[in-house]
Amino acid sequence: MHIGCPKEIKPQEFRVGLTPNAAHEAVNSGHTVTVETNAGNGAGFLDEDYIAAGAQIVGTAAEVFAVAEMVVKVKEPQPIERKMLREGQILFTYLHLAPDPEQTKDLMESGATCIAYETVTDDRGGLPLLAPMSEVAGRLAPQVGAWTLQKANGGRGVLMGGVPGVGPARVLVIGGGVVGTHAAKIAAGMGADVTVLDRSLPRLRYLDDVFGGQFKNSYASAGNTIELAREADLIIGAVLIPGAAAPKLISRAQLSELKPGAALVDVAIDQGGCFETSKATTHQDPIYDVDGIMHYCVANMPGAVARTSTIALGNATMPFMLALANKGWRQACEDDPHLLNGLNVHAGKLTYYAVGMALGIDVLSPALALRE
Q: What order do you get walking across the sheet with 70-72 strand by strand?
């Protein structure tokens, strides 16, 4: 198969879809790899590294899309990239379609087969291609939250760990999954007073058993959430419903109940955000103020640490990428129902139920899509 990797063009996105190691693995498996020039620069990978791995370098994204049977990326294709997709081509990347009707429409019209990293599953009910970026985003969230809390940035002027005689910042993490657990660990490590909320009692028991000495946990009822939010200096939104739009956990009206200058870090912004007042921002202009509450809603947080993120993502995606290339998408998805769960769009049809529910679009069963 001919595999193509264009340079990411979303603002302040420095990651790259293929590492030189992944390119080397693909070439060794008998495939052709074409990479756009300078695609890996932001993550510290030079064209020479890809050439040494056996890949070809071309000058433009258009050349990559023109020759590739499978396009491997990081972020969802931007409008100019969506125009370059064609019928029968495979797109393997993060998509986050539920809050993005325009992208969904364009992908359906392209006729391409689009497999989303964020909905591929595993035997334990996890999301193995989302997990590494969730780990990165979770670990970044207290770091950027601490920065947002600084008075010069509009925050309360509270130090995460406090100092002798002055108490630490109170941090509320809503969601006890991968993002929330990593966020809580880092925030607690910074010396903050941390509470994690979740609606799963088994998950709360796990968090208590493993991290009981590091941070507290509580049940995420609506009343409990706002009660704890009123006391928080920093609130990290870490709730995920796979493939679906994120639920709104704090309304605009409730902002008036929060501490003036409190910081909200919305890690769920890729799926529409879990605070009613959230809107996507960039690393270049990451925060904004609504009613005296500072919002950090960068839609590609892991892009800030592009090298770590690229290598972590590449480690996770490589086996699936090779399966798609070695077998073709149909056989690969037939053999692996977890990869089939990643199928979001095929031949003009939407194939992921949660996205269809969010956007009001009829959905074709992925199993039926295999036979089209």
A: 56-58, 32-36, 2-5, 70-72, 90-93, 113-116, 343-346, 349-350
Q: 39 φ, ψ to 5°?
A: -60, -35
Contact between residue 312 and residue 137 where contact means Cβ atoms under 8 Å apart: no
What CA–CA distance (Å, rounded) separates 119 from 339?
Answer: 8
Q: Which residues are catalytic?
A: 96, 270
Decide: 177 and 184 in contact? Cβ < 8 Å.
Answer: no
> Cα(213)–Cα(231) distance, rounded to whole angstroms?
21
DSSP characters for 111-167?
T-EEEEGGG---TTS--TTTHHHHHHHHHHHHHHHHHHTSGGGTS----TT-BTTBP
Cα–Cα distances in Å, from 95 out to 72, 285, 345? 12, 23, 10
**Which residue type occupies 248?**
K
Report d(CA 326, CA 222) in Å as an integer.
48
pTM metric for this prediction:
0.88
* φ, ψ for residue 8, nearest 5 deg: -70, 140
Q: Which of 342, 298, 322 is nearest to 128 (CA)?
A: 342
**In the chain, how many H helices and how many E strands?**
14, 15
Q: Which residue has the tokens 């991968």?
A: 178
Q: What type of residue is 30?
A: G
Q: What is the pLDDT along the chain (372 residues), one digit of tens a residue?
A: 999 999 999 888 999 999 999 999 999 999 999 999 999 999 999 999 999 999 999 999 999 999 999 999 999 999 999 999 999 999 999 999 998 999 999 999 999 999 999 999 999 989 999 999 999 999 999 999 999 999 999 999 999 999 999 999 999 999 999 999 999 999 999 999 999 999 999 999 999 999 998 999 999 999 999 999 999 999 999 998 877 788 999 999 999 999 999 999 999 998 899 999 999 999 999 999 999 999 999 988 999 999 999 999 999 999 999 999 999 999 999 999 999 999 999 999 999 999 999 999 999 999 999 987
Residue carrying structure tokens 């798609």: 324
201 neighbors 182 (Cβ within 8 angstroms): no
**Running DSSP on this structure, what letter comes out for residue 250?**
B
